[in-house]
Every structure is written in C-alpha cells, then in structure tokens.
Amino acid sequence: MSGDAGGASGGSERVRDEGYDDFLDAIAADEGFYLECPEGHGSLPPRRVCPHCGATELTEVPLPARGEVETFTTVHVAAPSFADDAPYVTAVADFGGVRLTGVVRGVDPETVEGGTEVTADVGKTDTAGERVLVLRAV
Amino acid sequence: MTGVRVAGVGLTHFGEHPERTGRDLFAEASERAFADAGVPREDIEQLNYGNFMGALSEHQGHQGPLMAEAAGLNAPATRYESACASSGVAVREAVKDLRNGEADAVLVGGAERMNNLGTAGSTEGLAIAADDLYEVRAGMTFPAAYALMARAYFDQYGGTQEDLAEIAVKNHDNALGNEYAQYQSAITVEDALDAPTIAEPLGLFDACPITDGASAAVLVSEEYAEANELDAPVAVTGTGQGGDKMALQDREFLARTPAAERAAEEAYADAGIDTNDVAVAEVHDCFTIAEVLALEALDFYAPGEAIGAAARGETTRDGDRPINLSGGLKAKGHPVGATGTSQVVEMTRLLRGDHPNSDAVGGKVGVTHNAGGTVASTTVHVLEVDV
Where do the domains of chain B lie, and which CATH numbers do they carry? Predict the structure, then answer.
C-alpha cells in the first residue's frame, strides 16, 4: 500500500497503459475520441470487442465537446492517492456515445448538479501529481 | 440431482481484530462449523474459500491450501475472489459440485483481515474492486460509487437521507442481540443524520464498518446427510449468479442492479419458489442505499418503492418481511471475503430457530443476496427449512 508499487499511485515511473494513456493524451490535446461499433454502441479503450454487443469492428469517433453531469458526489474520505485532493467532487457525465467518470473542477462544488455542462480535460492530482480525468464545468 | 444440506455453521466475532491473522480467523470459524455439523474433517473433499484483499492486507496469495491447513483439512482447496461476493461464489460452486456428485461434503467459507491497513489503506484496498483505469484513477472510492448510485436513485425515484437513516437504525437494532456483530448498539435517525459525511449523500452511518472476521459452513449432499443421520434441517434449494459491466459509467442503469435481478430470477426458478414465498432475507447492505437496490432486485419491491420500506416498518424485525435480522453488513460488519458465507450462516440459524432473532421469522424460506463491487457480480441463494 506504499503507493509506489504501480497501479493508480505509481508515480512518474509508472509504465504506460496502452489505450488508456493514449485516450488521456488525446483528451489533453483536445482530440478526444471514443470507440463506436456498427450498432452505434460507445466504449473506451483498450477494447477489441464492443462490450455491449460483441461486435469486433470498432472505429474511433470524436468525443462530443460537451457532456452533462448525470450523478455526482463530494468525496470527503479519499484513498491515499487522493488524500490531499479531498474534499473533491467526482461525477459520471454523459457525453452521448459514452459516459466518463472524472473529478469536477472549475466550479464551486456546492453548485454542481445533475445537468451541469462539462468538457473533458486532463489535470493532475494535488496529492501526487498523477494524471486525472477532469470534467471541467463550462 | 441431489439436494444440498447445511450440516453446520460457524463465525468468528466480526469486529476490529487488527492483530489476528486471516488463518487464525478462519481456523476459529471452521472449528465452530465442524462442532455444529458433527461431520469429521476427514470426510471433507474440498475447501471453497472466499477472500478479497489478502494479497494487500497480508501479503498472502495462494490462500486455499493455507486455509485448508488452518482448518485441519487434508483436501484440495481453492480461493474464490469476486470482491465482496467472494464467498457467495464459493458457496455457489460448492452447491454445484455437491449436486453433480463431484463431492459429498464440502467446507465453504471466507475470511478477511482489514483493520491492520487502517482507514485509508482499507479504502484503497476496497477500491481495487472498481475499474482501476476509469474509476479509481478518477478518484472513485467505494463510498463514492454508492453515493453516485444513491444520487441517481434520488433523482430518478425520489428519496431522502432520512429514508436511508431508517435503514441504518433498523439494522443496528437487529444486531443488538447478535453476539457476533461488530456494533451491538442502537442508533437514532438523528445520530445517522448528524454523522460526518463520507461521500454525499452518504454519511458514516450509511456505511458498513471495516471489519475483520471469518465464516464457515459444512455443506453436504442429501445422501450423505441421510447416511450419517445428520440433524441438518436447512437445505440450499436455489442458487443464482448474475454479472454486469465493471464500471458504473458503462452500465445501462445507475439506480438499478440487473446483475442481482438475474441472480434472483435464476435462484427462485432453481428453488421453484416465487417472491411471495420468501419470509426473510439477508441482503448486501454495504451501504444503506445498497439495501434499497437489493430489495428491488430481489423483486420484493418495484423499482423506486423500497426506499421507504424500513421507515414504513415493512422490513423491520416485526415487519412483514424482516430484512437483515443479523444486523446486516451495516451493523454486523463486513469482512469482505467472509460475508457471502456469513449470510448463509445467519440464515441457517434464523430458519433452524437457534438465532436470537429467529422469533421474527414467519416462514420457511429465506434468501441471501451477496454483491461484488458496485453489483457487477451477485450471487443469490434460497435456503429452506424442513423440506
């Protein structure tokens, strides 16, 4: 549990997670995308199969610029990797083809509500400077 | 296909035992189960053992043979891991093996040591049951995940923190006479509402505690029970399991638990019962909102209707269908890998009549509901007495 053995709190030496880190890179470069199957189901990388229908033909499509907060909570008791970030708001936001889970920033936590409009971004945690998916209120 | 009988059951005290090893906890629970069963250890053909975070908390993998040894068995042993449903899965696999003739006597159970990690460490440990890439790295903890579900439920169906507090009050009340329970103390709605917030809208009393403990049960075939003239009035008559997407964001529903719905349908059909036959249930109330979701998935209530069940007195000890007469995970405690089997232990005693709350049971059919993660995996079992 020391936080330097890899995984979520792996520090700067963490080996990249192919697919996932590529997705974060794309979000950071304002080129966010998700994967879509011929049936129109969305999913996030790494994927070889659509988790909803089993289709194997997945194509990258642009992530819509804005999503809406669907549900959210203010976390007061955090895991060690977010200890200095607490309290923080984490939310699930609907971007149309996919939902994203992230830390909500750029807004007074008290004013977050269902339907709050957000963009996807990549920030760093206060605790260890780890990359984190940010839902930035617009 | 043969029937499956519960020959004997055992628990440790559930609570804060940070210095006790997993092997010692499981040894105690299994010793009690053997004493209750009257089955000799040499008749046990396999151990199905549930554990979740032993690799983190005790730096111990390969726990199957370790726990067989602790229980005094000379039999093959397998550790099952399905987050908080680990020993529910262990029970289900044992039931299947007993039915198909693979074994005539199986020890099932589980153990978890958590308090040696502290609050932050166990919070991090529990989080590994979520999707590491897309949830944990986005700051999701387990209380946060259930808070997200609670908020979604409130938005979709209505409900308040007071409704949730009533569930905590009920389950604390049920645990008062349970010598194995972590909390044997009554609380009020005000206590729950005034408690520190963990992840809004959930407070400290909406969450189960961090618990060390173990559970064990000796399950045998109908033929074994008859041949050995065992006093084993409780049978496992139905088993079911369901799954869902790992991450909340990939689910069709944020305020329903289809994995549990599927597990329940399968278990009820397996037992040949319907919802109205169920007199009592032990459900996976890791958070108060989880009890609400469970009661709806088990078809005791339509979606959106279970939120007020405790407040209306329908699920209390003197209600129509008492829920979590053991105290539930909320008050009895939640040693993660032990919980699924502990529900079977409690239900067996409730139905047999030797549980402190047996008087509240108004029928012969009980159900146990054990959920992993944010209900990405669930097992449901039907237990019946005098069948």
Answer: 4-117+209-385 (3.40.47.10)
